[in-house]
Amino acid sequence: MPRLTPLVRNLLLAWAGVWLLNFLLRGAGSQGPLNNFLDLDPALLGGDWRQLPGLIGYTFAHDGLSLWHLLFNAYLLAVFGPEVEILYPRFQFGKLFLVTTLVGAAAHLLLSLMVPGLAPAIGGSGFVTAVIAVNAAVYPNRILNLIFIRLRMITFFLILVGLDLLVCISTAKGEMSGKAFEIHLAGALVGWFWADGFGRMGIQTPWQAWGQRRRQNKNQRQQQQSRDEEAELDRILAKISREGLPSLTPKERRFLDRRSKQKRSS
What we know:
The protein is mainly alpha-helical. It has 2 domains: 198 residues, Rhomboid-like (Rhomboid-like fold), CATH 1.20.1540; 58 residues, no CATH class. Helices cover 68% and strands 3% of the residues. Strands 1-2 form a two-stranded antiparallel ribbon. The longest helix is centred in the last third of the chain and has 38 residues. The chain is elongated and about 95 Å long. It starts with 5 loop residues before the first helix and ends with a helix.
């Protein structure tokens, strides 16, 4: 297991602290008051603003009835998280966490509109999936030793995504699993695009092609503008040579002043 990095360590401590405090406060057979406060409840869409903390808080809470939910997510974060924090240190890592959390919340709330009675969501598995996605995008051929089998990083990631897609299909058929597949898939998408997974594979997405065309058009416009301004400068200088400086119009004088300022600033 790699050495823990600062933000990964702090997040693990936050997860453990929330779980322990909730465990001490909860009653028998209940998820506990802290989980009820932090969970992502679709009632938010019905105007219950008391559920607002859940937009971010859900990723800090884990199953109050079992320790395994927390341990599984914590283990995966400890294994794959440090590499991502090294790649995207400090603010960038925090930004990845925030974006993944909010996109996962949006996915859960959107699903609740299509699946009535969807249960509140808790857990940091969306961010864990995002971290795994970044590893798969950056180090696709890294070999993982998983007890009895050895897998490439990209293969491990695709298996996880495939399992969530199967749960998605089951949910579409009306079979509720209780697994927040939509948050996992949202995390997978955020992590993959965050690390430019398709670009690293040499695959250009439609929006990347659009962005490239836009940049090319902008460069062409700037080059054409530069040529036009050079031609206008040559015309004005020729006019001064023929007729003298007093012959310039106010517009031509402003043009010369602007060019002079640009030259001094450069």
